[in-house]
Amino acid sequence: MAVRTVRIAWTGALAAVVVAGTALIGPAAAAPAPGRSVPAHRAAQRALDAAVQEGVPGALAQAADRKGVWNGNAGVANRTTGRERLPQDRFRVGSITKTFVATVLLQLEAEGRVGLDDTVDSVLPGLVRGNGHDGRVITLRQLLNHTSGIYNYTSDAGFAGKIFGDGFFQHRYDTWSPRDLVGLALAHQPEFEPGTDWSYSNTNYVLAGLVIEKVTGRPYATEIDRRVLRPLGLRATSVPGTDARMPHPAGRAYSTFSQDPAAPVHDVTELNPTVAGASGAMISTTGDLNRFYGALLRGELLPKRQLDEMKTTVPLSDGYAYGLGLQSHELPCGTVVWGHDGGIHGSSSAAATTVDGRHSVALNYNGDWTGTSDAVMEAEFCG
User: Fold this and answer.
1) Which is the catalytic residue, given 95, 155, 201, 348?
2) Which region among 24-33, 107-116, 236-245 has the lowest average model confidence (pLDDT)?
3) pTM of the predicted model, to two decimals?
4) Does 155 participate in catalysis according to the annotation?
């Protein structure tokens, strides 16, 4: 398969966003965390400060390792009140949702209830048909690693006009069923023959959510809660269904609907998350994300065989590779970390951990038009 540029956000944005813009407010200093000195994370704090100077309204990060937990922040959670971002703030995680969905599907595979090489049609008969798409020759593995070739529904021009531009304000509370979203994709031809290339498609994970529902008889959200959130005690993480509101505490989310730093900034905090569904609807915190990815890589959620399958990757570019809902990234210093990025209206997030699950970092920017997570990751993992 050809090496491709990695695309990780639910919106389909590039992993590395073009840095542009000017500071909205000066950076706020991070408070020292118990058991860990600020100097150990000074470079990570500088990266958060730089993101705000480049135009991100507010940046938030947490690092956790054997020596303790450090929380860093810069900028504001709310541009109107000036409130700082807090370690316990919740935010939309976008495509980080994909790792949770893949984990549940791999748990079902470990239980013998479904196979990675089963076809989509064997679980969802007749659903994936039309314009060259054929679920009889697409496997569940190909959904999870984005080698299915199924068109990405968020790239549909009509959908994008309603969701990513001025149409957002008219349609932000619309409810979308998973089959609505799949239907948008099937109106287009596939990107390539299954298994011959790689292309990031949110449709793959909408289908994965439907597979979980068909196999278990329960919604994917219920299975994530009972199989992952409750066992790990991730009390601040949720799959919000149709609820457009953010649980407290939370800041606001901001978008310009473009990468033009001169464009107006809009508050896009409230939206009906069914627009993303199993491809990107979840809400979490930096602490919960670190707990999740650390536990996953330590083997607390999957047997070794399934975790090895999850870490079997397709090479991409710039040191990235994509497995089953889990991406790896070789940093410039040679350290390889595992995790996922995620973007959705007004929220850009990333979470990564070392292969042993012992050193984890999660971050969020409450703006979607500028800033990149790479600088924070490199600062924390490379020193």
Assistant:
1) 95
2) 24-33
3) 0.92
4) no
